[in-house]
Amino acid sequence: MSDERFLSITERLERRLPRRVIRLRGLPYSCCGAEVVEFFADIVDIVNGEAGVHFTLTKEGRPNGEAYIELETDADVEKAMIKDRTQLQDRYIEIFKATTEEMDYVLEKTERQANQPWENVVKLRGVPYKCTSDRIRQFLRELDIPAHGVVMVTDARGRNTGEAFVQLKSHEHAEQALLKHKECIDRRYIEVFKATRAEMSQASQSLHNHCNGDHYYSQQNSSLKGVGLDGVYRHVVQMRGIPFRATEEQVRSFFGLDFEISAVQFEIGADHRPTGRASVAFPTHEDAEKAMKKDKECMGKRYIELMILSSQNTPIDGIGPNGEYLFMIHMRGLPFRVHARDIVSFFDPIPILDIHLEMGPKGPTGAGQVAFFSAQERSDALKRDKENIGDRYIELFAIKPLPSAHSRSIQQPHYSFPQAVGRHY
Question: What Gene3D superfamilies does this protein's entry cite (predicted)?
Answer without folding.
Answer: 3.30.70.330
